[in-house]
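User: Assemble these into one structure.

Assistant: Restating your components, then the assembled model:
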Amino acid sequence: MKKIVLLMIFFVNLTLVSAVNDTFQILKEKYDVKEGEYLALIFIDPGECDKCLSIPYTQLECISQSINRKTLQFTAIVKVDREIELIMFKKNYNWNYDCEVDRDFQKKLELKEGISMAIFDSKGNIISQMTLQEVRCDRIQKDLKENISK
Amino acid sequence: MKMLIRILIFCCISTFNNNLLLSKLKNIKTIQIEENYEVIYSNISYLELKNDTILISDNKSNIVAMHNSKDGSLIKRFYFNNNLLDGLNNKNGIFREGYSYISADTMFSKYPGIRKLPTKIGISPHQAKFYNNNILVFANFNPISIQINAIDTNMNIGNINGVVKLNMTSKQMSVYAFMPDDKNNYPLNYSNILILNDKFISSCWNSKNLKNNNFDSLSCLCQIDENGIFEKVIATLPKEQVKSGLEYSWFGYPITFLNNKQEIIIAFPALQKIYNLTTNDTIDLVNLQYDNYKYINEMIDGELTPMEQYNKNIGFLPNIIGNIFQDNSGNYYVTIYLRILDSTTEEVKYQIQKYDKNWNFIDEIFLPIEDNAGKQILRTEYSVDEDLFLFVLKDSEHFYISFRRWE
């Protein structure tokens, strides 16, 4: 009986891990994240918050002064339903970078609920995840440095 | 084989139930809302029907537009002149002295060297309403604060609620910011704005009293004049909402509605009660499958915090009141968003209850969040002129409006 339970836990974990990996893999391929590079996702609900994009953006800009822009790519994950809605999002928010329709990414990538930004390494490991209040240039810098030195 | 039969039976029952439930609200017609590259909706946050016209507001895509109610075709999109925000003043301590607000458009034309930030700056419409010969757009303004005679090095983006008046004949547009009073009561656009004798009844909050634990005086509904000037507090938060820690957050602001006698009816989404502010009557909703007070009482007793409840049950509380309507015969309708999502139960649907004009329960229906054709029901409104429910539907490709009559 114990063996069956352990086996079940193993398979459940395996399924979860592969779901996370699948989701990250899609993003990794789309944005061509190579080894030693990072992908920052900024989560935004256009109806909820007007400044939720500019705060993480300015902090990422700050980081970009010490780290190559190609090394740290960023994309907005927008809480809309259809690809076409991204046209209005880009226009209204003056957003000239990559963006994606939010396909339940926080859950699929096993991120904390309600976070505003998450940074992944090329293997899909979460380097940093922050709420809007926590998004700060020095914190991101510290998290990245720690990961690079590993 | 047995399993297959079970699945088939389940599917048949589900379809049957959906049809049965929807059949009580007879579908008069469903129209597809026309979109083009200038008008792409993300969220129809409000709509009004007048004659053959539907006025739609979208607070996500920043759109106010008129459509033909017969076929959904686009008649006109209204564009806001963001330069109107240059006229916003900073009276009553909205912002620090020596600074004034300007629109992003002015800012970037005056100082072209300044990099645009990825931020929604301008006028974000919450709800547009027909009023006399005007369209009143209750909106969120995001002007930029700038030090007079100098570029503010710490450019700050304001967040002010107010109204844009669009005159239909003269095409003139004017903007009024909702001003707080000297007791720190701040009017907001969060819920349905009522228009009564040319005054606006809006939700509001009091930051000072909240900070000072002056819980008896937490305003939640305020009256402002047509120029946005604060006049008086109409209602304060109920004690149970304050004691539970729900306060202003967690569905804290009231749903508002003006009945056929021009009485102000409100409901706090989590409290399962309807208040008539004009007659001082309180009505308890009946026939609820689950009881919010199971959790609210625990919050009042200090055994549960709203955040713990949120983490435990992503539906937060089982019943969240969405809207109140009244038909031409005086019957009231209350729409409730029913959401139980915890480790043991998973149930998400709309409950629409019908009460007579004296608030005696008559009937109710339950609607799935998604209909049989895969269309999600996003919101419900009621057109008193046409005596019809208006359902906003969305599928993977389009938005629709379904006109339904309770039979």
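The interface with chain A takes residues 35, 37, 40-43, 45, 59-63, 116-122, 124, 140, 142, 157, 159, 394, 396-397 of chain B (CB under 8 Å).
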